[in-house]
Amino acid sequence: MLVEGETLGWVGEVHPLVARTWDLDGAAAFELDLDRLTELAGGRVPTYRDVTSFPAVRQDIAVVVADDVPAARVRDVVRAAAGDLLARAEVFDVYRGEQVGEGRVSLALRLEFRAPDRTLTDEEVAERREAIAAALRERLGGELRG
User: Fold this and answer.
1) Per-residue model confidence (pLDDT) at position 49
2) Least crowded by CB within 10 Å, which of 13, 37, 74, 89?
3) Which uninterrupted H or E stretch holds 48?
4) Residue 59's closest CA among 113, 114, 132, 128?
């Protein structure tokens, strides 16, 4: 493997006799100089998030706010109120019409709650959802839509 003409590693097929010794039909191996690769990338190391074996709790909510409130602001308030257990918050639908009233908009958000060390309880998620509803009311004059 070459970066700017410099060899930083190799990749190749494991010899069939060696693979058979390990009871593999076929295998590949590689070596990479990550320290040098990081240096060449200007010292920037990408961040990562551990994959956890604990399941996420997914919920959808609909928030009604004034039509001039940006969806990004709603998402920011939701993230801040939910705390560190909120892994994702995505707006997936926007509705304007009679059901929400003149000058109002309903934003549907998909929330994903996750803890890295345990399965979340319904009570923990309910507390976070109540905190979200309170923050939306206080900061944006918004309401969760039933």
Assistant:
1) 65
2) 13
3) none
4) 113
> For 136, how many CA atoms within 13 A lie in the half-sphere containing its CB?
28
Number of H helices, E strands in the chain: 4, 8
CA distance 8 to 40: 10
Among residues 67, 137, 131, the alpha carbon closest in space to that of 101 is found at 67
- pTM of the entire structure? 0.66
Tally of CB atoms within 10 A around 105: 20
**pLDDT tens string 67-103:** 999 999 999 999 999 999 999 999 999 999 999 999 9
Q: Burial level of 37, CB count in 10 A (0-12/13-18/19+)? A: middle
DSSP string, 78-144: HHHHHGGGEEEEEEEEEE-STTT-TTEEEEEEEEEE--SSSPPPHHHHHHHHHHHHHHHHHHH--EE
> Residue 37 — very low, low, confident or very high, per pLDDT cuts 50/70/90?
confident
Q: Specify the CATH number of the domain 57-144.
A: 3.30.70.380
pLDDT at 52 over 70: yes
Residue type at 37?
A: L
